[in-house]
Amino acid sequence: MIVTCSYEELVALTDGARSLLSESSGSESAVAAPSAGRVAVEALLPRLSGDLSVHTLAEQRQLERAARLIVEHLRVEMDARVVSAHPAAEEAVTAYFDFAHALSFLGRVQEVGQEMRVLVEVMTGQPPTEHSIRTFRFPD
User: In sequence order, which residues have a C-beta less than 8 Å from that of residue 117 and are 6 or more positions away?
Assistant: First the structure.
């Protein structure tokens, strides 16, 4: 399965991931990435160069976990910029678009996950199991 990404989404996700990782490694953050989330974000970062291939439900779940953390981090940053400046200030508007692009990507990742779960169920006759989540492979 392929999750498509626009240039703007890739930039927003990359910047958000770097910001999240730098904040969570140094100080207390409003959105502290738990260790599994941090690993997911670190694994996603080098893949943010174009559309993403997702071959298993386990991979999709890790991608969704990373995207969800980045979106939440960007939401907190957007809120802070709106409150510290003005809703129409350039930095607040930029933060909104970063958040919106990442949120749009997260929505597509969730849709792909739903499609994958349905296909596993149709092909195996049962809902995804821990085994099928890791072993049932989807082509691009």
Answer: 57, 127, 128
Query: Which amino acid is residue 15, in one-letter code?
Result: D
**Tokens describing residue 137:** 């492979």
Q: Calculate the dihedral angle through the C-alpha atoms of 89, 93, 95, 101, rounding to the nearest 10 degrees.
A: 180
**Cα 44 to Cα 27: distance, rounded to the nearest angstrom:** 22
Kindly state the tokens that stand for 131: 């085994």
Contact by Cβ (8 Å): 40, 9: no
pTM of the model as a whole: 0.89
Radius of gyration, CA atoms only, the chain = 16
Mean pLDDT over 19-26 rounds to 81
How many CB atoms are located within 10 Å of the residue 51 CB?
Answer: 12
Instruction: Give the single-character DSSP code of 57.
Output: H
